[in-house]
């Protein structure tokens, strides 16, 4: 009986404990407990208490949880689905791969109509495509199609808004519901919500859009591009602001922002809160509401003071002298400030929730930007202060690389877009994220050559490897004589005497057939004759016979000794990404003529090493032939000695480094063939004029002058020192 009472008592006690813990919140509704609970509860302050939160925010701000004009995710999704019926598109379902099988990745732009308005920015995009190596004027060869209708600004309040787009594109016989089409857009939607409404149905087209929401972005199909202004350069572009040893990681200001503050509407909440982190010392946050037509009607109590403080600082000075730059959302998710911060090496601190970052499919933004949360603005200062100086410098360097590689011009933005689409067509031959995020970048690392970083000349040091220990001698012969001349015989003997030589290839660029094999000299290495097309650009074609990493490019009249070849090759193995050779020129800016010039005189500077006697990596053959558009190769074929200049310009554009000159016994004397098909003129002034024209046309095509000058010449140790010959490794270099 006692045991039974104990069990009943324990059951009753446990029931009360469970009721107390799990139902305690409901007990306060009973009058019996209300008095005690009221006494027990601590009198906490209200969260909008003006005296406690005075230094952080006004109660009016805190009462509103978010911007009421901001559409909810469900509303944005509904608006998207009402316009874009193919929201589930993927490359496998909405792209016809068969169009790309026969002719490869070719891009066709619709013919431009005379009465069709075209913005300056869209004109630049179309020009970039038509200048690219993928352009085709034949729609039957095309894999991808670009509309001639300007779709960049789809704000119907804008003067550049094109109406009746649906009716126009339906009349295009190639439209096919948008399949295999690419549409560019910078501005979508309009006041007050700025939704992603483009005003027409894109069908199954790929959308390359700025300010892309992650919720409406179709991964692996759409492409997020940066927002750029109409003044963004067509090609070339300005350099980044971070120069070697010129800017320390820690600058005058830690964190800055200077820009518009929206008083009402979408995007106003984030920018209205920026004044909370301003301390006037190392964190500068300046806003102005003095913009737009009706700003005075909506101005608040802070406007007048903000407008005065706004004028005290120069925007460019803040960019130059700040480590981090706040990049908040505007009316749309993206802003011009993003590219401005990248160029200035001011690490972007992004406050734009839901923004699909530009080219995020390829670019690792975690190495170049700080992605913040709009609701956690007050944590940003402490977060950036915790970043180690070494990592800050790495961030700054990455901003400069990304700016130069993908964003400094419209050309690069468009080419990056096209290359990402091309990689999707052949995933097994696509670039890795390592290639996209490491110098020189994905645009200059061709997957058609290789997808393994160790095969490129840029990554040997990073991977702890070295180029192959042999080279291929590549001699271009243009002599019309049926018998071999003495210079080429001596050259073959000297080159084959090098124990680094793997093979000799002779590019026969004459109308007459080459001499029979019996008349060629006997060598210890294989000698192969390749029949050329008698074009100057042939010498840089990626011939399958070239198997070594190093190529020794030679003209038939070049005079070199075995010691010179050996020493130059040893030097090249230490600098495999550069051109290493003997005869050198230098370029200069002629202020009177206002054009670029060159000189072949021996001076203290050099920027061009002639490929008549030079080592370089075989990858540059692929880059020369496949990366450069056909128009540049045609330019080379029509101008004398332009191929030397173009190869040097190309390598300098890739590496941002000058070539290397090594010592030679005799000064190089250029020999001019008497008859060479495809070369205009002979020797003398006409050749000099053509080279000047070539140099200036290349600078115009690249948008800047890529050549880099140097005052360096490498000689062997103890070269011409008064010591015993037995102590010198290359004593024959000193013999006349």
UniProtKB/TrEMBL annotation:
GO terms classed as biological process: heparan sulfate proteoglycan biosynthetic process
Q: Which residues form the Glycosyl transferase domain?
A: 472-719
Endpoints of the signal sequence: none
- Give the CC-aspect GO terms: endoplasmic reticulum membrane
Reactions this protein catalyses: 3-O-{[(1->4)-beta-D-GlcA-(1->4)-alpha-D-GlcNAc](n)-(1->4)-beta-D-GlcA-(1->3)-beta-D-Gal-(1->3)-beta-D-Gal-(1->4)-beta-D-Xyl}-L-seryl-[protein] + UDP-N-acetyl-alpha-D-glucosamine = 3-O-{alpha-D-GlcNAc-[(1->4)-beta-D-GlcA-(1->4)-alpha-D-GlcNAc](n)-(1->4)-beta-D-GlcA-(1->3)-beta-D-Gal-(1->3)-beta-D-Gal-(1->4)-beta-D-Xyl}-L-seryl-[protein] + UDP + H(+)
**Which InterPro entries does UniProt cross-reference here?**
Exostosin, Exostosin_GT47, GT64_dom, Nucleotide-diphossugar_trans
**Which keywords does this Swiss-Prot/TrEMBL entry list?**
Disulfide bond, Endoplasmic reticulum, Glycoprotein, Glycosyltransferase, Membrane, Signal-anchor, Transferase, Transmembrane, Transmembrane helix
Please give the Gene3D superfamilies that the UniProt record associates with this protein.
Spore Coat Polysaccharide Biosynthesis Protein SpsA, Chain A (3.90.550.10)
Homology family: Belongs to the glycosyltransferase 47 family.
What is the protein name given in its UniProt record? Exostosin-like 1
Organism equals: Grus japonensis (Japanese crane)
């Amino acid at each position: 009986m006692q045991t039974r009472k104990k069990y009943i008592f324990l059951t009753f006690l446990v029931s009360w404990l469970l009721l107390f813990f799990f139902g305690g919140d409901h007990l306060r509704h009973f009058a019996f407990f209300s008095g005690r609970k009221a006494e027990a509860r601590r009198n906490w302050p209200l969260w909008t208490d003006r005296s406690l939160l005075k230094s952080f925010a006004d109660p009016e701000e805190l009462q509103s949880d978010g911007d009421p004009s901001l559409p909810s995710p469900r509303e944005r999704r509904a608006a998207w689905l009402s316009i874009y019926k193919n929201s589930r598109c993927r490359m496998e379902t909405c792209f016809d791969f068969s169009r790309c099988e026969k002719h490869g990745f070719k891009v066709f732009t619709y013919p431009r109509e005379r009465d069709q308005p075209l913005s300056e920015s869209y004109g630049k995009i179309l020009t970039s495509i038509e200048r690219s190596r993928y352009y085709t004027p034949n729609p039957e060869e095309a894999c991808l199609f670009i509309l001639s209708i300007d779709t960049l600004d789809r704000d119907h309040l804008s003067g550049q808004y094109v109406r009746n787009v649906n009716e126009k594109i339906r009349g295009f016989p190639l439209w096919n519901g948008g399949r295999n089409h690419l549409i560019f857009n910078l501005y979508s939607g309009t006041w007050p919500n700025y939704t992603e409404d483009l005003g027409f149905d894109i069908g199954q087209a790929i959308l390359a859009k700025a300010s892309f929401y992650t919720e409406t972005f179709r991964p692996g199909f759409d492409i997020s591009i940066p927002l750029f202004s109409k003044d963004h350069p067509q090609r070339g572009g300005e350099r980044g602001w971070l120069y070697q040893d010129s800017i320390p990681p820690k600058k005058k200001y830690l964190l800055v922002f200077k820009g518009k503050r929206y008083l009402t509407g979408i995007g106003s909440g984030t920018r209205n809160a920026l004044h909370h982190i301003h301390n006037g010392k190392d964190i500068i946050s300046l806003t102005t509401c003095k913009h737009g037509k009706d700003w005075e009607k909506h101005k608040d109590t802070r406007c007048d003071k903000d407008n005065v403080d706004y004028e005290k600082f120069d925007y460019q000075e803040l960019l130059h002298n700040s480590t981090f730059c706040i990049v908040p959302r505007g009316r749309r998710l993206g802003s011009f400030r993003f590219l401005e911060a990248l160029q200035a090496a001011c690490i972007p601190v992004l406050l734009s929730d839901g923004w699909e970052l530009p080219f995020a499919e390829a670019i690792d933004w975690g190495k170049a930007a700080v992605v913040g949360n709009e609701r956690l603005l007050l944590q940003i200062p402490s977060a950036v202060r915790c970043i180690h100086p070494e990592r800050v410098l790495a961030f700054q360097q990455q901003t400069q690389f990304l700016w130069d590689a993908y964003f400094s011009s419209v050309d690069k933005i468009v080419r990056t877009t096209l290359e990402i689409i091309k990689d999707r067509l052949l995933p097994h031959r696509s670039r890795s994220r390592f290639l996209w995020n490491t110098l020189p970048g994905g645009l200059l690392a061709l997957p058609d050559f290789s997808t393994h970083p160790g095969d490129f000349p840029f990554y040997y040091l990073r991977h702890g490897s070295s180029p192959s220990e042999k080279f291929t001698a590549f001699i271009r012969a243009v002599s019309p004589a049926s018998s071999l001349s003495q210079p080429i015989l001596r050259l073959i003997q000297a080159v084959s005497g090098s124990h680094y030589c793997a093979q000799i290839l002779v590019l026969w660029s004459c109308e007459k057939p080459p001499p029979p094999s019996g008349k060629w000299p006997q060598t210890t290495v294989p000698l192969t004759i390749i029949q050329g097309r008698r074009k100057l650009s042939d010498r840089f074609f990626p011939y399958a016979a070239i198997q070594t990493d190093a190529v020794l490019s030679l003209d038939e009249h070049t005079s070199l000794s075995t010691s010179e070849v050996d020493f130059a090759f040893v030097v090249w193995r230490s600098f495999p990404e550069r051109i290493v050779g003997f005869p050198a020129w230098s370029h200069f800016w002629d202020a009177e003529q206002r054009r670029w010039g060159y000189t072949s005189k021996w001076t203290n500077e050099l920027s061009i090493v002639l490929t008549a006697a030079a080592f370089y990596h075989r990858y540059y053959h692929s880059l020369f032939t496949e990366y450069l558009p056909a128009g540049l190769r045609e330019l080379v074929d029509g101008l004398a000695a332009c191929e030397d200049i173009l190869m040097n310009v190309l390598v300098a554009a890739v590496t941002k480094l000058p070539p290397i000159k090594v010592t030679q016994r005799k000064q190089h004397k250029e020999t001019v063939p008497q008859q060479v098909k495809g070369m205009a003129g002979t020797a003398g002034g006409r050749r000099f004029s053509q080279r000047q024209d070539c140099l200036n046309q290349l600078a115009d095509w690249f948008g800047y002058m890529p050549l880099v000058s140097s005052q360096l010449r490498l000689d062997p140790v103890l070269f011409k020192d008064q010591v015993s010959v037995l102590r010198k490794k290359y004593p024959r270099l000193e013999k006349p």
